[in-house]
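I have a small job for you when you get a moment. Would you make up a two-line entry for one protein for me to read? No commentary is needed, just the two lines. Write everything out right here, beneath this request.
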Amino acid sequence: MQSVYQRLNTLSPLTQDLLMAWIVAILFSLSLYLEHFGYTLYMVNSLAALSVFYLLLHINRRTLFLSGFFIGLLWFYWIGFSFQYYNVTWMVPFVSLGFGLIYALFFGIISLSNNALVRALIIIALTFAEPFDFNWMQFELLFVNSYFGIFKWQFILIVTALALFSTCKSPWRYGMLLLLFGALSWHQPDKSLPDITIKLVPMELPQELKWQPYMREQILAYNFHAIDDAIAQHYDMVVLSESAFPLFLNHEPRLIETLKEYSKKIVIVTGALEERHHHNYNVTYIFNDTDIIIAKKMILVPFGEYIPLPKFMRNYVNQTFFDGASDYLSADTPTDFTVKSITFRNAICYEATCEELYEDNPKYLIAMSNNAWFAPSIEPTLQKLLMQYYARKHNSIIFHAANMGGTGIIQ
């Protein structure tokens, strides 16, 4: 061990900072990647999370910037994958590097002070920040599958305990760590599944095939086979993924009539597109005993379904990178619908990972996603952890149907 320390001390300061930055990034990302490969290790996740936030209170400015850069890459390298479907494949590495730089600056803010207590306040403040309306960097996610709770007050208690332990010089400093016991998750609230049977239909259709005209009949056949199968198994409701019908369904009257006929036997919830008055919507269609509810998406994906920039810049980006496509439009409020006296809230992909959709603590959500935009990657795993986070925070149960990974019940 002595020789290891001696060798580390012979390294240049930059090399030492790079090495420490990678250690911080790996600890910060460990629970995410373990979950992705099927390992839910509460003890490992708990120790890694405590260690990384302790390090963030102490590492130097350059290491903080480098750590943020590596964390941005490890968490969001996949975001650029979607650009290949807009014929700008050359953008993929630049988008990934861009997210690395954004989070280099994001974590670099912590270096505004060298005082551990001030850094703790900065870290807590950063949990309220959403760069470019993108909210998938949630510090509390590190505790989703750990022995600690995921509520804001518990996170504040953890960071405060670590900061007090760092700054206190008396022999009583270890007593500060007793605050961590207050942040432990002692029990999970009881949740009951609804008195209704729900068939969640996974799909494994690559994005490059999803919108090809020659695939249309095959996709429709798959969807109706899934509905037939759910009827045969006596399910009350069948849920297909986002844009499972990859077309503007309101322009397909014969298809709508077929789905209405099927809905006499089973409630059908499916994703599709809608076009009205030259505006596009990403929507959910609910067919229930020949009645139709069209649930529009309330929260759009930044840089996917809308550009969170001033209008003159937004128009340029749409024209340059998205073939002139305009932003999707959204609903003002979430859509709730009732099946057999049970109320469900509609959630389409990104909005199932947003706080706004969980206002008034909905008991049950029907969520659908198309994760093919980012396959293969850790995106479905990160999405699942975010939904777990909000489901626990708001005592909800999420029924999630997805294309290319993520289908299941989340609570």
